[in-house]
Amino acid sequence: MGKNKKGCLFYGCLTSIILGLVFFIAVPLALYYGFNVAAGKLIENYTDKDPIQLPEVVLGEAELSMLKQRVERFRKAIQTNEASPPLELTAEEINALIFHDTQLEKLKGRAYLKIEGNALQGQVSIPLDELNLNSDDRRYINGSGRFKISVREGKLSVIIQSIEIKGKTLPAAVQNVITGVNLFENAEMDQETTKLLDRLKTFEIQNGKLLLELNRNREAEIDDALDFNGGDAL
Fold this sequence. Notes:
The protein is built from seven helices and eight strands. The relative contact order is 0.19. The protein has one domain (11-226). By secondary structure, it is of the alpha+beta class.
């Protein structure tokens, strides 16, 4: 990823993962073909003139309201450093948020997610010009990919497991560059994102759901330490 600081706090995190995934694929493709011909072979072989139609997930008003409330309670717990039960989201719920929530506007009609095993599988249809890659026409990267996400010691990990673009497997030279690499290895996160990642104990797929679980807050850790030491502070 580039040097620009990334915002997260769940919604931004989801957007960054999807757009970062596409950008991370497009750059090695351009390098593979050579920048002098990238506007030819790259665009011809791996983009389409039209976006693909992605499935839409529509929830009833009451169900959607309850879903948004669950997410908002979890976000507030992060912001206020309070305790919160884990947040579990099915693929249907994530896609419903993408379709309905204005904070995920960048992904509406451009990303559709599935959960398979312990990984996320996504379909994307992203305008090429939004990736800052020159194109004479408005063309689209239409593809699918499988990737694994996790958080360890405050670090976000998004590992690409497989990718297809326009129904084609990428050249071996490109696959070797991107497969198994953490998209966010060198990403610089803003203060809000750093706070989120520091508080997350779990951010991964478990039992067919995206699970977000908070570490115990600092106040609880201090209370436990005081109890252990008979109430005497060090």
